[in-house]
Amino acid sequence: MASIKELNDRLTKQPYVSGYTPSADDAKLFNEIFGDNVNVVQWAARMATYYPSERSKMKPIPVESEDSSEIDYDD
């Protein structure tokens, strides 16, 4: 898969990379995209439970600890 857009386009036609059943291709691509970043996968799954209209209305929450204020989201 050359890009996320191409993957997205393919997944509009079928639920998995190679068709209608999960395969080694899906596992390989999943690992290429997410690696060992289990927390990112869990966060994405949780965020996906909200409709786009709900996500657009989410408000910022004040940062309470120094640790979370040091997160660099550009990495």
From TrEMBL:
It comes from the Eukaryota. Residues 64-75 have a biased composition (Acidic residues). Residues 56-75 are annotated as: Disordered. This is Hypothetical_protein_conserved. It comes from Leishmania donovani. The lineage of its organism: Eukaryota, Discoba, Euglenozoa, Kinetoplastea, Metakinetoplastina.
